[in-house]
User: What shape does this take?
Amino acid sequence: MTPKALRRWSWVHTWSSVVCTLFMLMLCLTGLPLIFHHEIDDFFGDEVPAASVPAGSPKADLDTVVANGMAQAPGEFLHFLIWDHDDPNVVFLSVAKQFDAPSVNNRFIRVDAHTGEYLDSPDFTSRFTYIMLKLHTDMFAGLPGKLFLGLMGLLFCVAIVSGVVLYAPSMRKLDFGTVRTKRSRLIRWLDLHNLLGAVVIVWALVVGFTGVINTWADLVLKLWQFDQLSEMVGPYNNEPVPKQIVSVQQAVQTAQDKLPHMTPLFVAYPGTVFTSTTHFAIFLNGDTPVTSRLLQPVLIDARDGRFTDTRVMPWYVTTLFLSQPLHFGDYGGMPLKIVWALLDILTIAVLITGLYLWVARRRRARAPARLPRAEAATS
Amino acid sequence: MTDPKKRRHRSLTQIFLVPTILGVLSAIGLVIALIGDGIYDLIGWKTLAVPLVLAGWHMMRPDRTEGRRPAGR
Assistant: This one.
């Protein structure tokens, strides 16, 4: 590599890193507890437990579930009915003050899936994991915050790639993994930066880039609405939300009959973001580790209960779905979570050593030139 | 930039051999745990843990390079 090219790559690496480092540190620190958010929530959880029933017990009629849950929320509107991912005995009702309000500030009502009885309505927003999640996804700044963090993630990816290029000249005289502990802190931390960077690189690139993809989720949803959803809805587009809707139990049953090998995950009520103004959208998933990430919607006309359409999601939604486990690290049990956490900690070390190298070299460059450069580096 | 060529220089292959192996192992680990459960998860996290173990080993190892070297890089 020519000295000129080296200087350019060095500039790219320095500035892409410097701009994103503090945000990446925040993301790594808030991401660390989020890897274990289930365990943390369980530990601090004070939820009313659902009745324990033998496996295979019949589920309560969904219309009863909805009626009992909504009795606790007079004047509010049901947006989504969600089967609890972690506890098959519980169904969540996601409700809002307005039927056409954005669903981001919805509150949740828990209902027993077997007895159909109201359990409680926990306030997630005061939880530690919720605060971490908000900081991690948008820093409480909504879509702009999300897209900004996505941009920082892209810079992080640029920093990783340029770091690979700079790794070669840095390691010309060293064996892999050499940490010159007898030398100055600058040299020691450079070696650690190189070693840990080389170790976490593929993981960091994958987690970083899938994180960037996740920041585009809202845009992907919008695209899907305009593209596939509007095609599926066809001529029914833009009709008013019906005053009378059919039984949700019946709608879910119709959807289940259409896709008998899939499991319903949640129901979007007419007028919410995941469906049209006149349809229930029942989202189902498969049962393998990969197909469980790929949701498929079935549209049921909420006015007469008839099946309207179901389609496999387009490639851009599938990409988003598949990028999620690779970002969360929640697909290989507790050992994978621990590996995820350790790699996250090493990434934090790469960020901190990198930041130190930048500060120390600037300081050195500014220092009066009474020492020859090389000696200053080792002092 | 002066290049004294006093010490043996590593080739690009030598420099990138270990990092490439670690990268491939990481990629295999990330994907394999996604494919299935049980044995896939086991292989997945163990493969992904190899770079971690290697990093730990190198950090524990005593420095075997010469101490302070005279000026000139």
Remarks:
- Confidence is low (pLDDT under 50) at residues 1-6 of chain B.
- The first helix of chain B runs from residue 12 to 35.
- Chain B touches chain A through 46 residues (CB under 8 Å).
